[in-house]
Specification:
8-stranded parallel beta barrel, 8 strands
């Protein structure tokens, strides 16, 4: 089995669009390369941020294959309505040498059934036995994997090595208290931008999957580094991590709503990345009020960060 990729900070890549609203894989690879060059440990493709429900299976596999062919460590999302499609994505991930697998629950059909989800997870893990995998827990998928199910799966599938929690403080606390703290070979990934500090400091997370980091990689990496030092007992790092968490909070909360991709693509456009201006559905767009609010908050944060980061000390050490 390959080395555990589930440490560090990794961005959930969005899918850029061509003018005809088909995926722009050249721009996708370029973005992945920029993220790794910025210091990210890997990239995630075709989780929720990648618009997996709006892409065909063939498009998703092409994106994954292009990222892997470029030499990028890619973690592949297995989101699907039916188990066969999820298995196909897992098998393809192993074939092209993906670094990791993000195992997403079955949706829409029998989504609340523990037995159905167990069989779904097992089929995915069986299809890619050599790829390190984490269960993706999210309230948006309508199913919460609990400790009993996780360890029943892990007993049969040694490639299951971790847990990504997209829920809030209580969900992360549950994952740490009942799953990842039971076995030091099991890793916890923070899956929501608002809880990076809590996840590292209070829940023993080893890494994070970020949305805001696609637009602000330096700042997302800094927050993770400060949070790690805070988890080791540094009082100065704890203070600075809390300050940064508070300042970036509004931008991070975009990660929690249904318009997250619309917001984060708009931030990339503000950064000058025109390949992210379009969405796959023409009617998917921010309202004028949302766009104005997003821009105001982005300007405010960047002005604050320029001033705050000039203080030196542990901030400078971690940048």
């Amino acid at each position: 089995m390959s080395t555990n990729v589930f440490t560090g900070t990794m961005p959930a890549l969005m899918t850029p669009c061509n003018p005809d609203r088909t995926p722009n894989f050249d721009a996708l690879v370029k973005k992945g390369e920029e993220m790794i060059a910025a210091g990210m440990s890997a990239v995630v493709y075709c989780g929720s941020m990648g618009d997996w429900p709006l892409l065909t299976d063939e498009q998703r596999m092409e994106g994954v294959a292009r990222l892997a062919a470029a030499g990028l460590p890619v973690v592949v999302g297995t989101g699907a309505i039916n188990t066969k499609s999820a298995v196909d994505h897992a098998r393809h991930a192993q074939e092209i040498g993906a670094a990791g697998l993000m195992v997403i629950p079955r949706v829409l059909s029998r989504g609340t059934s523990v037995a159905a989800q167990k069989n779904h997870f097992k089929a995915i893990l069986d299809a890619a036995p050599d790829v390190p995998a984490i269960i993706y827990n999210s309230p948006y998928y309508g199913f919460a994997t609990r400790a009993e199910l996780f360890f029943a799966l892990r007993a049969e599938h040694k490639n299951l090595i971790g847990f990504k929690e997209f829920g809030g403080k209580d969900d992360l606390r549950y994952a740490a208290e009942h799953i990842t703290s039971q076995d030091d070979q099991v890793t916890l990934m923070v899956g929501v931008d608002t809880e990076v500090y809590h996840g590292f400091v209070n829940c023993g997370a080893t890494g994070s999957i970020t949305g805001i980091g696609c637009a602000l990689p330096r700042e997302a990496l800094l927050l993770a580094r400060l949070s790690k030092l805070a988890a080791e007992g540094s009082a100065e790092a704890r203070l600075r991590a809390q300050e940064l968490t508070d300042a970036i909070h509004v931008l991070s909360t975009f990660d929690e709503g249904p318009d997250l991709i619309l917001y984060y693509k708009h931030l990339l456009v503000l950064n000058g990345e025109e390949n992210y201006r379009l969405h796959f559905n023409e009617t998917d767009e921010l309202s004028d009020a949302q766009r104005n609010y997003c821009e105001q908050q982005y300007t405010l944060f960047r002005s604050w960060f320029a001033d705050w980061s000039a203080q030196g000390g542990i901030i400078a050490e971690c940048m």
